[in-house]
Design a protein that fits this description.
Elements (H helix, E strand, L loop, with lengths): L2 E4 L2 E4 L4 E7 L7 E8 L6 E6 L5 E3 L7 E6 L4 E6 L8 E9 L14 E2 L3 E6 L1
Parallel strand pairs: 2-11
Antiparallel strand pairs: 1-3, 3-8, 4-5, 4-9, 5-6, 7-8, 9-10, 9-11
């Protein structure tokens, strides 16, 4: 699976962005998907995950602000980010891992494939 993330940019605090992750390959529907982010000098951290069935989980820091979704027909996943804060500034990565129907994967070590990342910068 090859992943291509896009949609990042520079926004002001309180604004919104929608990240997209396009996946190649015909087996996209076998993969659970995740979003991670990495700020300068920090480790890559979990942001959101979505199972094959559409179940989602979020890091506490983004709950109620971010929403993950997937479109299996278009082999894409999305991350809608609202009420952005300066501390959300990071490079955002999408990732894929083969999983069962309802499994949500939050550990970065379980993901097999990674996109190249897209920069999100939130100014105060």
């Amino acid at each position: 699976v090859q992943l291509q993330a896009s949609g990042g940019g520079l926004v002001q605090a309180g604004e919104s962005l929608r990240l997209s992750c396009a996946a190649s390959g015909r087996t996209f529907s076998r993969y659970g998907m995740g979003w991670f982010r990495q700020a300068p000098g920090k480790e890559r951290e979990f942001v959101a995950a979505i199972s094959l069935s559409g179940r989602t989980d979020y890091a506490d820091s983004v709950k109620s602000r971010f929403t993950a979704s997937r479109d299996n027909a278009r082999t894409a996943v999305y991350l809608q980010m609202n009420s952005l804060k300066p501390e959300d500034t990071a490079v955002y990565y999408c990732a894929a891992a083969r999983s069962s129907w309802s499994t949500i994967i939050t550990s970065k070590y379980e993901y097999e494939y990674w996109g190249q990342g897209t920069q999100v910068t939130v100014s105060s």
